[in-house]
Amino acid sequence: MPELLLELFSEEIPARMQAKAADDLRRMVTDKLVAEGLVYEGAKAFATPRRLALTVHGIPARQPDLKTERRGPKVGAPDAAVQGFLKATGLKSLDEAKIQRDPKGDFYIGLIEKPGRDAIDVLAEILPVIIRTFPWPKSMRWGARSGKPGSLSWVRPLHAITATFGPETEEPDVVKFEVDGIATGQTTYGHRFMAPDAINVRRFEDYEAKLKAAKVILDPQARKDIIFADAKELTFAQGFELVEDQVLLDEVSGLVEWPVVMMGSFEEEYLAIPEEVIRATIRNNQKCFVVRDAKTGKLTNKFVLTANIEAADGGRVIVSGNERVIRPRLSDAKFFYETDLKTKLQDRLPKFEQIVFHEKLGTQAERIERLERLAAEIAPLVGADVAKATRAAHLAKADLLTEVVGEFPEVQGLMGKYYALAQGEDASVAAACEEHYKPQGPADRVPTEPVSVAVALADKIDTLVGFWAIDEKPTGSKDPYALRRAALGVIRLVLENQLKIEFNHIIRNAYRSMFAQMAGRPPVIEARKFTWKPEMMTLMSKIRVPRSLELEAMFAENIDKIIDDDALFTPEARKQRIDQEAMTKIREASRRHHYLRELRGLKEVSSELLAFFADRLKVQLREQGARHDLVDAVFALGGQDDLLMIVRRVEALGKFLETDDGKNLLAGIKRASNILGIEEKKDKRTFDGAPDAALYGLDEEKALAKAIGEVKAEASAAVAKEDFAAAMSAMAKLRPPVDAFFDKVRVNDDDPKVRENRLKLLNEIRSATRAVADFSKIQD
Amino acid sequence: MDASLPAHMRPERSFQGFILALQTFWAEQGCVILQPYDMEMGAGTFHPATTLRALGPKPWNAAYVQPSRRPKDGRYGENPNRMQHYYQFQVIMKPSPPNLQELYLKSLAAIGIDSAVHDIRFVEDDWESPTLGAWGLGWECWCDGMEVSQFTYFQQVAGFECAPVAGELTYGLERLAMYVQGVDRVYDLNFNGREGDQKVTYGDVFLQAEREYSKHNFEVADTAMLFEQFKMAEAACRKYLDAGWKDEKREAHLMALPAYDQCIKASHVFNLLDARGVISVTERQSYILRVRELAKACGEAWIHTEAGGAA
Question: Where in the cell is the protein located (chain B) (predicted)?
Answer without folding.
Answer: Cytoplasm
